[in-house]
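Supplementary Methods, section 5.1.

A reviewer requested that the exact input to the structure prediction be made available. We therefore reproduce it here, unchanged from the version used in the analyses.
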Amino acid sequence: MSDLTDTVSEFLRLKKLAVVGASRNRAKYGNAVYRHLRRRGYTVYAVNPKAQEVEGDPAYPDLRSLPESVDGVVFVVPPQQTERSLREARELGIRYAWMQPGAESEEALRYCQENGIRAVAGPCILVVG
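The structure derived from this sequence is encoded token-by-token as follows.
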């Protein structure tokens, strides 16, 4: 099995996830990803500093504000926001990141590799998971 395939499998076995970029707008990918994960049975937290709630659930301004630790983070934000939130994830001991298409950058991938964060970049979690 390839490293990416292994990481995808490991990520999909996690139980508690945060979606950085979860949106109130049902037409946006951040909302679709959030709903998809919730339907699949994950404990999922919406991270959006501009929202009070997403799909009737509380939204949090950042990863530090979550009510409990999570196992992994799905990023549905521009690359610069992904890079900032990855630093926060590392500080919190989160070891899995899934960067949706458009959320990844070379810097973010390098940061994950240098800091022991297992990262998925390329495939969409809506298709794979």
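The domain at 3-128 is CATH 3.40.50.720 (Rossmann fold). These observations are discussed further in the main text.
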